Amino acid sequence: MLKISQALTRIKPSATIAATRRARELKAQGVSVIALSQGEPDFDTPQHVKEAACAAIMKGGLTYPPVPGLPELRQAISRKFERENGLSYAFDEIIVCSGGKQVISNALLATLDAGDEVVIPAPYWVSYPEMVSLFGGRPVIVQASAKNGFKMTAEQLRAAITPKTRWLMLNSPSNPSGAVYSPQEMKALTDVLLDFPHVMVMADDIYEHLIYDDLHFATPAAVEPRLKDRTLTVNGVSKAYAMTGWRIGYAGGPQELVSAMEKAQGQTTSGSSVPAQRAAIAALEGEQGYLADRLSSFRERRDVVVSMLNEAEGITCLLPQGAFYVFPSCEGALGKVFNGRTLGTSQDFTDALLDSEGVALVHGEGFGLPGHFRISYASDMADLQEACLRIQRFCAGLKALAA
């Protein structure tokens, strides 16, 4: 009989992957399903990026790459950090991984011992607490409610830190809420962190280029340079450049940490795909003008989705400031009845919506904040409008409990 490791029993399957899988199964059965469960741009990878990968393949020399990344890519990343973030990282302070998720996993594997604590604001990306648990740490969840724009306050952060705290994981713009910490809000958090020199900062900046309404992006090491030597600045090409399947993430951080991450990667996956790394160079160094057009398209979709959701009975939806998600509350629909079944949780709500109307979403429990659900609006406008109409119809058909 197969024995499953204790480490694996500490984690749950991804709620986003589960929702997407269920949608695919229903589609295969001929059901009309609109899947808004996966965080993936619907744009194609830019042509010049694809051409760079093809050229790399045709040129040959596709041998094992250096574990921390091709020198040319690490140099391009260094220039990107300097150009866009005002951050200076030396060559040995940069690592390239097979996706942003591996960057984070490497860092946690390299630094966590059993019982170490990691502060994570909720709502959070579904994988954060699971990765912490996988590597023996303890997630310390801080509830960042809609009342505060889904953003953790400085007071909450201070209260969550203990002598066992190893990391703060911070994602801005946020998946799933789209919340963006302003420079002033980020400075309030970094001021707290200055009082706790044993705490590292993991800044997940993967949605950096997806910010709306003239807001300004802020990353901790740039806001407070005194934190740079204990901050890992995480990024990648998947979201802004529509390169999710290319699996290239990267980070800049203190040399000792990056070296430890390289050691971990060297005994797991080794270096990332060479053609994908060549493509990432083209993405970072090539034409950037199309990013503004794509951002405008996302903004238009955001505005339509938020407006239509706020017309649904029992749904309230804040206007997100970044990324390509909305995170509405369905509290007004809970306690009502669908097909004789009382909807007690946001998972009940999303399950019933999928069964009734064929709209696949991800429930708030998966993101650490029940009573909400996530919609990815990185989809065709017609599908988004149809999905919102189906949500309106579903909500209008719910019955109140009998007195």
Structural class: alpha/beta
Give the tally of structural domains.
2
Can you summarize the main beta sheet?
7 strands, mixed
Strand order of the largest sheet: 2-8-7-6-5-3-4
- C-alpha Rg (nearest Å): 21 Å
Total strands: 14
CATH fold call of the largest domain: Aspartate Aminotransferase, domain 2
Helix content bin = 25-40%
CATH superfamily of the largest domain: Type I PLP-dependent aspartate aminotransferase-like (Major domain)
Count the helices. How many? 14
Broad CATH class of the largest domain? Alpha Beta
List keywords for this structure.
globular, 14 strands, 3-stranded antiparallel beta sheet, 403 residues, 7-stranded mixed beta sheet, Aspartate Aminotransferase, domain 2, alpha/beta, 2 domains, 13% strand, Aspartate Aminotransferase, domain 1
Protein described:
This protein has helices at residues 6-9, 15-28, 47-59, 71-85, 100-111, 127-134, 154-160, 183-193, 220-223, 255-266, 274-285, 290-309, 346-357, 381-397, and strands spanning 34-35, 94-97, 117-122, 138-143, 165-171, 200-204, 231-236, 249-252, 325-326, 337-338, 341-342, 359-360, 362-363, 373-376. By secondary structure, it is of the alpha/beta class. It has two domains: 6-44 and 291-397, Aspartate Aminotransferase, domain 1 (Alpha-Beta Complex); 49-285, Type I PLP-dependent aspartate aminotransferase-like (Major domain) (Aspartate Aminotransferase, domain 2, 3-Layer(aba) Sandwich), CATH 3.40.640. Strands 2-8-7-6-5-3-4 form a seven-stranded mixed sheet, sandwiched between helices. Strands 9-14-13 form a three-stranded antiparallel sheet. A two-stranded parallel sheet has the order 1-12. β10 and β11 form a beta hairpin. The relative contact order is 0.17. The mean pLDDT is 96.
